[in-house]
Specification:
2 strands, mainly alpha, two-stranded antiparallel sheet
């Protein structure tokens, strides 16, 4: 579902910049197909769209309200007409066990099977390290007003996804991070790294900036490598016993 998510984010951005209803219609079309691939992505994009709509709404200019409402209505109507029939089977699944789905249960809470818990800062430092530090803290310093406008709704999704557990297993929430927050956070981190190299005017500053960027890139790569190695030795269930018997 990631390509559809990225296209949706791009079309919403272009639609707002150009006040063009066609881009909103395309974004609605992309969003409408998301439940067929990944319901988590649909939920994440919906949260992002609501956040972006609220942040950019021209509350002080009533003469712009109609145009703005028409743009977002185009997106919402197309997206939900296509998506709603696909969501019906999932709604029935949630009704069977409401306590296990969509409930307030931060992802850093104790997991029953693994019996472990981490404070939020430790969780994200262990998970993403330098990437988390830049994308959540330092990266804001190099963003312009429009970029901040696009990034704030992604942070909104990031916060909500940290607090609400959509399925029993907390790692399922990574699907929402990947759908919205990660694509934009990648751009934020990239711009910050470029800034470290390009901002200094003197050669010594550029030299130091290049080495800092190199250290950051190696650190992020090393973090990913260590995580991959750790995952290789983590017991992962591919099939339940019922699946196995059914296969036989």
């Amino acid at each position: 579902s990631l390509p559809l998510c990225v296209w949706t984010l791009l079309f919403l951005s272009l639609g707002l910049q150009q006040k063009n209803r066609k881009f909103f219609a395309l974004a609605g079309l992309m969003t409408g197909f998301l439940p067929q691939l990944q319901v988590h992505s649909y939920v994440a994009i919906a949260q992002y769209a609501i956040g972006l709509c609220m942040i950019t709404f021209p509350f002080k200019s009533k003469n712009k309200w109609r145009e703005y409402i028409e743009l977002w209505a185009t997106y919402a109507i197309i997206a939900n007409i296509i998506a709603f029939p696909q969501l019906l089977p999932y709604l029935s699944r949630v009704n069977v066990n409401k306590k296990a789905f969509v409930n307030y249960n931060p992802i850093w809470n104790v997991h029953e099977k693994r019996n472990c818990t981490f404070p939020p800062i430790v969780l994200w430092w262990r998970g993403l390290g330098v990437f988390a530090a830049i994308s959540l803290l330092c990266g804001w310093l190099v963003l312009d007003k429009w970029q901040i406008t696009l990034y704030l709704p992604a942070i909104f999704v990031f916060i909500i996804t940290n607090l609400i557990r959509y399925q029993p297993w907390e790692l399922d929430n990574t699907k929402l991070f990947y759908a919205v927050w990660v694509p934009i956070a990648l751009a934020v981190v990239s711009k910050y790294l470029v800034y470290l190299i390009m901002a200094p005017k003197k050669k010594l500053g550029k030299f130091i900036g290049c080495w800092v960027v190199l250290v950051f890139v190696v650190a992020m790569g090393l973090s990913a490598f260590m995580s991959t190695v750790q995952s290789m030795f983590w017991p992962t269930q591919f099939f339940s016993r019922d699946d196995y018997r059914f296969g036989l």
